[in-house]
Design brief:
By secondary structure, the chain is of the alpha/beta class. The relative contact order is 0.11.
Length: 417
């Protein structure tokens, strides 16, 4: 578009911070036909960002958290005729500041290109803001209200707030037909020769003492809700507590850590030993899980921020980090971590988000991977871990799966009591 068709003059790329800081510039250097492209990173302090905007470049890359700042900086003098949104699904919330900011300048942008592997991970309701940024409401309507009325009916509520919308009959086909002329969907397996990926659940057996303690804490946590309707916010808190306990510890009222078991640490130790010296990638969801893993395995590293983090990525891809600990929210999008000899990905904590799960696994299992990959989930037997892992296995996610599993758990505890 820039140099062959002369169809773009000034290009802005919006991406997650690490991707903006590392991936785009590094990928340009990999390809002979791209090396001439000049990239300016609009990152750091306001002064540094302003200097980067004044640089003579082909592509300006900014992190999504600074979109609002960028829009206020230029106002009606918006200079970018082409905007690429790397991880478009991060604009799925129509009430977010980043969406509202970009919406204001959208009429001044000639072309918007959105890239994402998970456009609607929880529901097709998430599509409207993303498609609006592409076509300004031409295909799915000018407002989220109109979109909902046309394709959905209200479902579960929390008071006056509808937190779940159900698709009307044939809505999926109608929505896909409406956006078919501007959407291209490609699956890696159809276009790339990727090696085998093996997904395995590793059952983690708790000792009698640990199992009894888990059941006692679970009963104390859930029984007060046996005769009450559990609302979404409460369900999230309860589920979070149960998953923490399943991983071996939980925070008490004073933010102290109550230890329950070390069974997952022992299982992780076996996995690391079986890797025979090859790097292992571990995803954690709780801070106390991170701290306990670091204590057991001093060789473990996390991705730092900024330039240090870019160095960590290079070190990982050069096999200089034996055990890398990642949080799916901070490392789930855009990072290229497939160049190491790692073949083992471990989910130490279980999560509900299908999007985070898929994006996180794609850090290693992606284009350029040449080795067979094993994705292992440490699931504590008889705990909430089992429900979360099973929900992801059947490609369920989000509030529906969480609420359904929690209600089943409450009923099970009630009968057991």
């Amino acid at each position: 578009m820039l140099h062959d068709y002369f169809d773009a003059i000034k290009v802005l790329v919006i991406a997650p911070l690490r991707v903006a800081d590392d991936t785009w510039a590094r990928e340009v250097e990999k390809w002979d036909h791209l090396r001439h492209l000049r990239i300016s990173k609009v990152l750091g302090s306001a002064a540094v960002r302003r200097k980067a905007l004044k640089a003579d470049a082909d592509i300006y890359v900014i992190n999504r958290e600074n979109v609002e700042w960028l829009v206020s900086e230029y106002g009606n003098k918006w200079p970018f005729d082409t905007v690429v949104i790397d991880e478009l699904s991060s604009f799925k919330n129509h009430q977010s500041k980043r969406f509202r900011a970009l919406r204001r300048v959208r009429p001044m942008v000639k072309r918007v290109i959105g890239l994402t592997g998970t456009p609607a991970p929880n529901s097709l309701i998430d599509l409207w803001p993303q498609i609006y940024l592409l076509d300004q409401g031409e295909r799915l309507g000018k407002t989220i209200t109109g979109y909902r009325d046309r394709y959905f009916v209200p479902g579960e509520r929390d008071g006056h707030i509808v937190y779940k919308w159900h698709e009307k009959k044939e809505s999926e086909q109608r929505i896909y037909a409406a956006i078919s002329d501007i959407a291209v969907s490609m699956k890696a397996k159809d276009w790339l020769e990727l090696p085998e990926r093996i997904d395995r659940t590793i059952p983690v057996k708790l000792s009698d003492k640990a199992r009894d303690l888990y059941k006692k804490l679970e009963r104390e946590l859930l029984l007060p809700f046996q005769d009450a309707d559990v609302v979404a916010s409460t369900a999230a808190v309860l589920s979070n507590k149960l998953l923490q306990m399943a991983s071996g510890a939980v925070y008490d009222e004073d933010r102290g850590v109550k230890l329950i078991h070390d069974a997952k640490l022992d299982a992780l130790e076996d996995i690391i030993e079986a890797a025979n010296g090859k790097p292992v990638m571990v995803f954690y969801n709780f801070k106390h899980s991170l701290e306990r893993i670091q204590k057991r395995f001093p060789q473990a590293r996390i991705l730092r921020k900024g330039k240090d983090g870019n160095g960590d990525i290079r070190a990982w891809n050069n096999d200089e980090i034996p055990l890398l600990l990642l949080h799916p929210k901070s490392a789930g999008h855009g990072l290229n971590l497939q160049e190491s000899s790692c073949q083992t990905v471990v989910w130490y904590d279980q999560i509900w988000s299908l999007e985070e799960d898929q994006q996180a696994n794609a850090r290693v299992y992606r284009q350029g991977q040449t080795r067979r990959i094993m994705v292992l989930r440490l699931v504590a037997e008889g705990t909430m871990d089992e429900e979360a892992a099973e929900a992801l296995e059947r490609k369920a996610s989000g509030q529906d799966a969480l609420m359904e599993s929690l209600k089943a758990r409450i009923e099970k505890v009630r009968k057991g009591d």
